[in-house]
């Protein structure tokens, strides 16, 4: 087994261990998908909030650039 394969397997094992409790909740409880999703969001809320702030900043910049481009061709001269 190469080093790349072993690191990939180790990464996969870590990922599976992190999802393990959520999978058990999802399978055993009625409405478990919603409960597991809620718990996952609660546990990762700071990371998700940072991603949302970056996405909102990017969206704001995109909208501002579109507004500026749309206004540029229509110049009005006042006499």
If you had to describe this structure to a student in words, what would you say it looks like?
The chain is 82% helix and 0% strand. It is elongated. With 79 residues, it is an all-alpha fold.
Largest β sheet strand count, sense and barrel closure: none
Task: Note the gap between the termini.
Answer: 79 Å
Order of helices and strands: HHH
Shape: elongated
Spans of 5+ residues with little confidence (pLDDT < 50)? Answer: none
State the helix count. 3
**Rg from alpha-carbon coordinates:** 23 Å
The percentage helix is: over 70%
Q: Let me know the number of strands.
A: 0
Can you give the mean pLDDT?
79
Which structural class is indicated by helix and strand composition?
A: mainly alpha
Beta-strand level of the residues, as a percent range? under 5%
């Amino acid at each position: 087994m190469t080093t790349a394969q072993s690191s990939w397997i180790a990464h996969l094992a870590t990922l599976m261990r992190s999802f393990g409790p959520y999978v058990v909740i999802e399978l055993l409880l009625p409405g478990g998908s919603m409960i597991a999703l809620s718990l996952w969001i609660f546990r990762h809320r700071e990371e998700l909030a940072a991603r949302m702030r970056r996405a909102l900043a990017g969206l704001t910049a995109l909208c501002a650039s579109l507004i500026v481009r749309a206004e540029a061709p229509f110049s009005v001269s006042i006499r």
